[in-house]
Each structure stands twice: as C-alpha cells, then as structure tokens.
Amino acid sequence: MKSTQQQFIIILALFLSNFIFAQTNVNQPKPVKISHAEPLYADLVRDLGARKGEKEFNLGAGFINHKGYSEYSSLVEYEFAPVNRLGLEVEADFSFFRRSEKNSAVPGDRLENLRFSMQYSFFVSEKINTTLAAGYTQVFEFTDFKNYGKNNLFTGTIYNPFVIAAKKWGSNFHTLMYAGPLFKHNFDRSETNIDWQINTSFIYTIPGSGHFVGVEFNKEFDHGKFEMTIRPQVKIKINKKLALGAVAGIPVHKEEGFSSFFRVIIEP
C-alpha cells in the first residue's frame, strides 16, 4: 500500500510539473476572463478565471464585540496565479482580546491560524457571463501565545474543500456563491466535527470608477445550529494598484455583537 501511494504521488508530481512547464513555455493567448466583483470579507483565493502572473497582497483588521470582551483581529494575505486559471494563497490571521466586563472569561491572544489555499476556475463562459471554480483550503490552528513552549503549538486543523459559482448580470450587477464543508479536527480531543459554510454576495459596481457597494450573507451550520452574519460593504478604488474596503457585520442568530472589518488591497 505504501509503495502504491508513493507511486501515485510521483505520477501526480510529474503531471503537475509537465502542466506548469507547458503553460510556461507555450505562447498562448490570454484565456477568457470575466470581471466578477469579489466580496470583501470572505474573499476568494484569486480572481475567478485568473491569468498567469497575477498577484495581490492584502492587509486586514477587524473588531467583534463579544459578551464580556472585545476581539481585535488582523490578517496578512498573499495570493498569486502561477498558471492560467489557478490561484494559490497563504494567509496568517491574528486575534487579540480585551476584557470589557469585570471577571469575564477572556481568550488568550494568539496567531489564530495559517491558511493555505488553491482555487481552479474550470468553467468560464462569456456567453452567459458565468464562472465556476473549485478549490481547497487547509487551516492550521495555533495555541495561545502564553502557551508557547508549554503546550502543543497546534491545537487543530480544518479541511475545507469548496465550490464557487459567480454570474455577472449586465455590466454592473454581480452575484456569487461560495460553499463547502468544514472538517474540523481537534488534536486535544482527537475528534472531528463537520460544519458547513454557504456564503452569498450581491454587489453593484459603480460605472467607470472601480468602486462598488454590496452585501455578503455569511452562513454556517455549526453543530447543526444555523448562524448568519449580514455584511454590508463598500470598496473604493484609489488607483490601479490600490483599493480600500470597509465591512460592517450584523449578526443573526449569533451570540456575538456588531463587528467591523477593513481591508487594504494591493496589486503590484
């Protein structure tokens, strides 16, 4: 069995290397790409229908008002397309907590997780202004900073395959759905739970500006319990290489309170 697995890995590696080599060396015209507006909070690994050489750097900061304490988050994210229609991404998320009520229990500050993602657009149609993609994200969860050197560095991992469907309606209206299971494995308890996330977005791009206004509906079935946050948002295009985004979070059937999120988008 082990020998078979090794052979499979070697064959897969050779196939991928030949695929990348072919795309690198063949002088092909740029593939069709539809300009879909991308949501700001649950953003994509890379633009749908990504073209080789595209890259983007993101900085983000957020605030969530929990009962008894406040959470301040930040993220650093880099995404790029090594070949046409394939996007790769690495992201680091940090969380910091401050007590707002006396004697309330407060989580420890930590590097929340590291995310490694890939996304491939397998269907792009100009005729119906639609793009379909599939991808996968691997998340590694970390212990609190104060526990470094005392406990295991990693507390768990999440396996997250997903699919994306996006459609552009006319010149300025955009809809997108992102859905997939979350296989959450806790190392301490040696157990795996399966949750589901379904994110939908509706966005209107302002003609001739690169700005947009829209809303995300971030939905999750956590241990069978439905939770949703509505996130109205706005994106301001400063120039060809820089954009700013602001998001408000309105919880529905969730214990957390109001939240906000800001994103700086840099395309070098």
Concise structural overview:
The chain contains one helix and twelve strands, in the order αββββββββββββ. With about 270 residues, the chain is mainly beta. The protein has a single domain, classed as monomeric porin ompg (Porin, Beta Barrel).
Protein traits:
1 helix, mainly beta, 12-stranded antiparallel β-barrel, about 270 residues, Porin, disordered N terminus, single chain, globular
Question: What does the model show?
Answer:
This protein has a single domain (43-266), classed as monomeric porin ompg (Porin), CATH 2.40.160. With 268 residues, the protein is mainly beta. It is 9% helix and 59% strand. The protein is built from one helix and twelve strands. It has one helix spanning 2-25, and strands at 55-66, 69-83, 86-99, 110-125, 130-142, 154-169, 173-186, 191-205, 212-222, 225-237, 242-252, 259-266.
